[in-house]
Design goal:
This protein is mainly alpha-helical and 206 residues long. It has 8 helices and 5 strands. The strands form 2 sheets. Strands 3-4-5 form a 3-stranded antiparallel β-sheet. It has a two-stranded antiparallel ribbon with strand order 1-2.
Length: 206
């Protein structure tokens, strides 16, 4: 990673190579997690992983920070992306970092309809005309609000997305907000995974 982190990539979510902000910031998440688990004898290596994570965040900020202060999708795509909520949730940067809070505000402003969350705007059409709401991002927004200690709001987002399942309780990739029906791949494992994570995070502590 240290040798190739400046190369464009498409990951598993994108259709073409670019220097995607989400991809680089999630790599920083992984590096910080590895560093945190390093034994005391590996403190030198852990410091190197943390330094590389810091470099990834700094380089991403240099070319993917929108003038409004939020993260943008890539150096060439200035739109907001709800997937960019996850780096802060996972620990790439602090919850109170201005880039974190600005991105959260932008998702609310640009990517929400009827309390459902879209991943990003494909074009200038109304959100529901372009594609379905992305259920994974609804649970991501619940986790992001929980991280900000907005637990009532987090529960609202969680319950809205949680209810968007079929009769067997399975989730598709998307939800058609206009027609109130599932859309896309069914079942979609990563939606179920983040639903369970959000449920655990929001559960009352006894």
């Amino acid at each position: 990673m240290a040798a190739r982190h400046r190369e464009p990539d498409a990951g598993i979510w994108e259709l073409h190579d670019d220097r995607w902000a989400r991809s680089r910031l999630i790599c920083a998440v992984g590096l910080r997690a590895i560093a945190a688990q390093a034994p005391s004898s590996g403190s030198g290596r852990a410091a190197g992983w943390e330094a590389l994570a810091d470099r990834l965040v700094a380089e991403t900020s240099a070319d993917c920070l929108h003038p409004s202060g939020r993260w943008q999708r890539s150096p060439t795509q200035t739109g907001v992306d709800a997937a960019l909520l996850m780096p802060a949730v996972r620990g790439a940067l602090p919850a109170d970092d201005p880039r974190t809070t600005a991105t959260l505000r932008a998702v609310h402003t640009d990517l929400v309809q009827d309390h459902y969350v879209y991943r990003y705007r494909l074009d200038q059409r109304p959100l529901e005309d372009a594609e379905g709401a992305f259920l994974l991002c609804g649970f991501a927004l619940a986790l992001a609000e929980h991280q900000q200690h907005h637990d009532v709001e987090a529960m609202r987002w969680f319950e809205r997305s949680r209810a968007a399942c079929g009769p067997p309780g399975l989730y598709a990739e998307e939800f058609d907000v206009a027609q109130r029906q599932l859309r896309g791949n069914l079942p979609q494992a990563f939606v179920h995974a983040l639903m369970l994570e959000a449920a655990a995070a929001l559960a009352p502590r006894g």
